[in-house]
From TrEMBL:
It comes from the Bacteria. GO terms for biological process: fatty acid biosynthetic process. Signal peptide: none annotated. PANTHER family: BETA-KETOACYL SYNTHASE, POLYKETIDE SYNTHASE-RELATED. This is Beta-ketoacyl-ACP synthase. PROSITE patterns: KS3_1, KS3_2. GO terms for cellular component: cytosol.
Length: 393
């Protein structure tokens, strides 16, 4: 594929607001996880990655019809790392109608819908919850378009935990087809009862901070996050970061479990490398999906070992942020870009006992190394897989 320039990129999570906060937490080995203190749902014994300050974020009057925890986090994330200036620059050069909005989310504003149903009045939503813009899967996409003034195609991708990785692939196809000249991509997911108790009902939530790829791992820690990136065609004179390849696949195996041999994961990674036009040995860092559930980690590790040499540095960063579901793709792509830009390759926080089922690619300790390419894996329920390759121009 033709490289796409990444003009701006940002992520806000439990470790802080923006790329610098994320890079600092990674370098210091400082987790954003804490014991569950999420309102009425705090009765669930687990650890969460919660973004502080969302309760006091105030949207402008014109955006009040979209007010929800999810959209407040989107508003917060849009204000970081010069993203607004990059959007304005793209609009000045291409026009608002030529810049797409492509965002991923797994639950959108369902937390607000839950609250509305718990406060029904005579079977109807109370006036304070009667906001039809919020109670739809497209709440996030519509909100971001309204908040930015962009007028190109507006798409919400909802493929569970691969959602905000797949937005990069969607943007690449739309730009290549000439439908748009640039795309604001990203994703936002926030904590709510459906998320916490839904995953707990599947017996996937740990009562301790998650330990990806550790021999004693016993489940995930849920988190919330939001982030965005602005993509456009690369120019000959570009010197910055680029999207170089993507790969997508579907296991078609099970509603919530990956293929036992990792066939879909391997296909996604192989296609991403092929589109980037590089060999697996050229990848310096791979951010793994690494949820810390027993089956997912061992299957992903085996898929990685089947494609990559022992020298690869691969790690899961969910010990910092928690599993941010539909936002995992954008947050962990940002981490892959930080590794590419700064040469700081994160380890796997909280994990210290290697699982013998995992290959030498899985690293618990951080490393410094100048790398040319990095990757990110995001795998979701239903076998939705997406792998991305990033490079320096």
């Amino acid at each position: 594929m033709a490289p796409l320039a990444i003009r701006a990129c940002t992520a806000t999570s439990a470790v802080g607001r923006g790329r610098d906060a994320l890079a600092k937490a990674l370098a210091e080995g400082r987790t954003g996880l804490r014991r569950n203190d999420f309102g009425d749902d705090a009765r669930l014994d687990c650890w969460i990655g919660r973004v502080d300050g969302l309760e006091t974020v105030e949207l402008p009057a014109s955006l009040q019809p979209w007010d929800s925890r999810n959209n407040r986090l989107a508003w917060l994330a849009l204000a970081q790392d010069g993203l607004r200036a990059a959007i304005d620059d793209a609009v000045a050069r291409h026009g608002a109608e030529r810049v797409a909005v492509i965002v991923g989310t797994s639950t959108s504003s369902i937390g607000s819908t839950e609250a509305a149903y718990t406060a029904l009045e005579d079977g109807e939503f109370a006036e304070r919850f009667a906001r039809p813009h919020v109670h739809t899967p497209h709440s996030l996409g519509e909100f971001v378009q309204q908040a930015t003034g962009l007028r190109g195609p507006c798409i919400t991708v909802a493929t569970a935990c691969s959602s905000s990785a797949k937005v990069f692939a969607q943007a690449a196809r739309m730009i290549d087809a000439g439908l748009v000249d640039a795309a604001l991509v990203g994703g936002v997911d926030t904590l709510c009862g459906s998320v916490l108790f839904g995953f707990n009902s599947l017996q996937l939530v740990s009562s301790e901070p998650c330990r990806p790829f550790d021999a004693t791992r016993n489940g995930l820690s849920l988190g919330e996050a939001g982030g965005f990136a602005l993509l456009e065609r690369a120019n000959d004179g570009d010197t910055g970061l680029q999207l170089r390849g993507y790969g997508e696949s579907s296991d078609a195996h099970h509603m919530s479990s990956p293929h036992p041999e990792g066939l879909g994961a391997r296909l996604a990674m192989r296609d991403a490398l092929a589109r980037a036009g590089i060999d697996a040995a050229e990848v310096g860092y791979l951010n793994l999906h690494g949820t810390a559930t027993p089956a997912n980690d061992s299957i992903e590790a085996a898929a990685v070992a089947s494609l990559f040499p022992d020298a690869l540095h691969a790690s899961s960063t969910k010990g910092w942020t928690g599993h941010t579901l539909g936002a995992a793709g954008i947050v962990e792509s940002t981490i892959a870009l930080i590794a590419l830009e700064r040469g700081e390759l994160p380890g796997t926080l909280n994990s210290d006992t290697p699982d013998t089922a995992c290959g030498p690619q899985i690293r618990f300790a951080p490393q410094r190394a100048d790398i040319r390419y990095s990757m990110n894996n995001s795998f979701g329920f239903g076998g939705n897989n997406c792998s991305l390759v990033f490079g320096r121009a």
